Amino acid sequence: MSKGQLFIVSGPSGSGKDTILKEVLARCPRLEFSISTITRAMRKGEVEGEKYHFITKDKFLRLLEQGEFLEYNEYMGNFYGTPKTPVKKCLESGNDMILEVDVNGAEKVRSQLPDVVSIFIMPPSLEVLKKRLSGRGTETQEAILGRLKTAISEIKRASEFDYIVVNDNLECAVDNLISIIKSERSKRERMYYIIDEVLKDVGSFNW
Amino acid sequence: MSKGQLFIVSGPSGSGKDTILKEVLARCPRLEFSISTITRAMRKGEVEGEKYHFITKDKFLRLLEQGEFLEYNEYMGNFYGTPKTPVKKCLESGNDMILEVDVNGAEKVRSQLPDVVSIFIMPPSLEVLKKRLSGRGTETQEAILGRLKTAISEIKRASEFDYIVVNDNLECAVDNLISIIKSERSKRERMYYIIDEVLKDVGSFNW
Q: Which residue stretches of chain A have pLDDT < 50?
């Protein structure tokens, strides 16, 4: 068995990456989700350890000093980080892991772990993205426009990613992401062991 | 739309590559099979233009002189070649193409077209391979052992391929090969166009 593969998934708000990832994780065996460590208050419906680990700022800063984060950022006075230990453990067990980070986080992870495979989830058009963001009904027109502008600057950086998956149709996007994960598992680098395994009996083979 | 991708599939006799390819081609849209040009006599059940184009040796040698073959070989006095023109046409149309060649043919194609993606179909064990070859019931014990020896020398070269797909279970092997083809279609190099397409409306976008 070879080591697991780390995948990064990024995409603008409204690209549907959360929904896609939920489906992919439900369908794909031997694939784990990296739970982020964050310091903001828990929101309604959120569960500790599901998508986030909630800790205090003091504890976050202590872990940061110990070099425990693969990447982190500060947003509106709170910290968001990807802890190293679970990633290491998962990959060593032979399972694959998915990290959901923004384009800056992706850049940081790539610079530390060049073997990472990164995937950008692309909305089919700005028009569709705007509709999806408006459809949530939870944000002002101004906030939506702000998100759209951020999305545009992220889309411009999609070429930094190894793969681009267009989320026009959810089922297709899920299928494409699963294909990427599966195909990485068939890569030569991960399958070397099978050559030795198949040939191990050559000497004692019943000719 | 970007250009199509060329795939090479190799694997020892008894690896099940013919059955896998038939299934993959039936299920995968925008994927064509490269029909080999050969000079041996047509066998019972074979149809011109299905898996092979049957031509005379004279014609083959003329085409060879014209540089029409991406790779070819001579076996028991007959010629077997992969014609260039259909590959070129297919890839330019945006469709992908699969070539089935042996490990030497794969090496020749790779040296001419470094962007080719190559896949080795691996039997799960020598024991299973022997059973599959014996199960055909059409060959002598000696011929089977000859095929096994060739298989071993081919398996030793599996590491020259980009991907290795183990054919333990036909359904899984087919699914893995389709995943490789799909994932190649999501590669950055083939998806650059979508960045421009999504961003083309930024200027005239209804903010």
A: none
